[in-house]
């Protein structure tokens, strides 16, 4: 079994970050952490950078469930980043804590054309890549629900609810709720086309199916968190709340409501 104190650092090298990291590495040695060269040998994966870096660290290491993910910011403190490179005292506090106390963040499982599955920690997004409006039939648990016409749709996780979802007027959701939220990007609503026109929060166990109407605008831009997907032609996307959860260190002064307050109020 991988040593519980094997840590992998995920970051883009720069002189500034490398020099700040020296102090963090010194602290790590004091608390018996061992740096490993490959994430597969790690039990702890720390991203250095903003929320975007955290999302990339989770994606590039394949959403590991047997790992604790920790975000260390180099700029301002974000949603997934509970530590700051300039605050060594707090990093030390984190290293002293029992690493078994964890927060669990729900993810989404996305299947495209019944073939490939992907995970998302923030959101799945689908947008038209041309100026023409884009048409999607939305089905929920096998029921035809609505036909969307507009720029696109976003399906967010609870932790992703404070990102793209929030800018679309979606609700901020407590990550203890295992749910996904569907929001619209500029839907066209008139006597011919009608959508719900409000964010829709769906519980775990439901399946959302988006059928892309093939009318010449069927090369959408598909986003998985901060990564664009390479599939160019797609017909059907199935989305559900996954059983896979991302674990992160639980610091008692940095729970979900602290983060919402700190970021927005
Ligand atoms: P980015 O375009 O560089 O920045 C997006 C901003 O959102 C950054 O300030 C980022 O923080 C912040 N952010 C990311 N996840 C967040 C979360 N869960 N809660 C609150 N803020 C969050 O892209 P990025 O940094 O790689 O982040 C990717 C995310 O950007 C996507 O997953 C999507 O949610 C969001 N996005 C938003 C819009 C919009 O609001 N209209 C459009 C496209 C994408 P950091 O600076 O710490 O990275
Ligand atoms: Mn960013």
UniProtKB/TrEMBL annotation:
Q: Which domain of life is it from?
A: Bacteria
Q: What is its main location?
A: cytoplasm
Record: residues binding NAD(+): 51-52, 122-123, 149, 151, 162-167, 186
Q: Does the keyword Nucleotide-binding apply?
A: yes
Keyword set, alphabetical order: ATP-binding, Cytoplasm, Kinase, NAD, NADP, Nucleotide-binding, Transferase
Q: Which GO terms describe its cellular component?
A: cytoplasm
Its Gene Ontology molecular function terms?
ATP binding; metal ion binding; NAD binding; NAD+ kinase activity
Q: Tell me the Pfam families matching this sequence.
A: NAD_kinase_C
Its subcellular locations are:
Cytoplasm
**Some GO term, biological process aspect, for this entry: which one?**
NAD+ metabolic process
What InterPro entries has UniProt attached to this entry?
ATP-NAD_kinase_N, ATP-NAD_kinase_PpnK-typ_C, NAD/diacylglycerol_kinase_sf, NADK
Q: What residues form the catalytic site here?
A: 51 (proton acceptor)
Q: PANTHER family recorded for this chain? A: NAD KINASE, NAD KINASE 2
| UniProt function note | Involved in the regulation of the intracellular balance of NAD and NADP, and is a key enzyme in the biosynthesis of NADP. Catalyzes specifically the phosphorylation on 2'-hydroxyl of the adenosine moiety of NAD to yield NADP.
Give the protein name, as stated in the record. NAD kinase
What phylogenetic lineage does the species belong to?
Bacteria, Bacillati, Bacillota, Bacilli, Bacillales
Encoding gene (name)? nadK
């Amino acid at each position: 079994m991988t040593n519980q104190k094997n840590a992998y650092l995920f970051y883009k090298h720069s002189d500034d970050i490398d020099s700040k990291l020296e102090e963090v590495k010194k602290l790590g040695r004091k608390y018996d952490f061992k740096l490993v060269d490959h994430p597969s040998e790690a039990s702890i994966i720390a991203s250095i950078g903003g929320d975007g870096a955290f999302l990339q660290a989770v994606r590039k290491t394949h959403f590991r469930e047997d790992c604790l993910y920790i975000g260390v910011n180099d700029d301002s403190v974000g949603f997934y980043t509970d530590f700051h490179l300039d605050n060594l005292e707090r990093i030390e506090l984190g290293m002293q804590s029992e690493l078994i106390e964890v927060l669990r963040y729900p993810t989404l499982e996305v299947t495209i054309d019944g073939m490939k599955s992907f995970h998302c920690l923030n959101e799945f997004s689908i947008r038209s890549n041309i100026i023409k409006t884009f048409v999607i039939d939305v089905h929920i648990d096998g029921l035809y629900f609505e036909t969307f016409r507009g720029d696109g749709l976003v399906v967010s996780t609870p932790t992703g609810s404070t990102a793209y979802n929030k800018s679309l007027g979606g609700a901020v959701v407590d990550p203890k709720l295992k749910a996904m939220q569907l929001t619209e990007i500029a839907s066209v609503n008139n006597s011919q086309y009608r959508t719900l026109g409000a964010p829709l929060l769906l519980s775990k166990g439901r399946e959302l199916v988006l059928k892309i109407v093939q009318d010449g605008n069927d090369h959408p831009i598909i986003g998985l968190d901060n990564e664009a997907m390479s599939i160019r032609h797609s017909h059907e996307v199935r989305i559900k709340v996954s059983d896979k959860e991302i674990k992160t260190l639980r610091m008692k002064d940095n729970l979900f409501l602290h983060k919402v307050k700190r970021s927005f109020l």
